[in-house]
Amino acid sequence: MKRIFTFLIITFITAAVAMAQETKYKVTTVAFYNVENLFDTINDPDIFLNEEFSPESEKQYDSEKYYDHLNKLAEVISKVGADLTKQPPVVCGVSEVENRTVLEDLVNTDGLKKYNYGIVHHDGPDERGVDVAMIYRKEFFEVESSASYRVKFDFDEEDSTRDQLLVNGKLDGEKMHFIVVHWPSRRGGELASRPKRKAAADVSRHIIDSLLKENKDAKIMIMGDFNDNPTNESVAENLNAKADKDDLKKNELYNPMAELFQKGVGSGAYRDKWFLFDMVILSQGLLGDPKEGYSFYKAHIYNKPFLKQKKGRFKGYPYRSFVGDTWMGGYSDHFPAYVYLIKAVE
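Predicted structure:
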């Protein structure tokens, strides 16, 4: 029998009848975190950035820095969503990881080991040598299959970017689909790089449409660093992710991060401007009655004070591990994004 202490039980009192009746709900967290260049210290000459993250580089990236970074990332992941659930995420997508080894080191840190996280990872073609991946608590999520989807640019056949990861399985016995992405960066400028993110969005949309074709009520979450805001064309039009969950058309997605963005909430900053590139976006199957299965409850950006620069020119920005070649000893240049799901229990 599965333990349910992982979830906080929320009680809502209804007064529809003379004697109040209680409905209890399980609450669980699904998160995404760009972990900012999680490289090991081994120099792989086949990877573009690998030499930069080695003891011989200007960064002097050694084991001490590597394990410090791992432990800080584990600290963050262990706390995301815990304000409500008192436990870390059951599923957490990650980006900017070099290989499976760094993921194994991450889930085996003192901060995460006791939660028995499993790993889903496929090597991709990104020239920087970073991939997306997903970690999950084996006690609550069962992986049934996974697949990696390549993004190709017809207008630039020599360029490559991160693959997109699809993981199918059961969350607490309920069928779920998770897509983890890291769309192309804005290198070269937002306008010049826009076609690459739109191409990546089209691949994401293809994955989602394939799942919805099999089951129109499929419960799908696409999460990642989109390198665009909720209002950008790639997200709002190509991906077809909208801000108003009460006015969705067939097969449109709900983007709960759009409301946060409208309120000025960001997951990172650049040149004194906040962006919200890190998102968890939902299919309409997750907007149903929580009495019938897992349903969306709330969305947040995890931006606690300990994750922020305390002083100086960049006070309030995410507290990074590196700035250029200077070791800052922080966490990441992104804040995590996460959602709570709820489900009625007897």
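Summary: The chain is about 20% helix and 30% strand.
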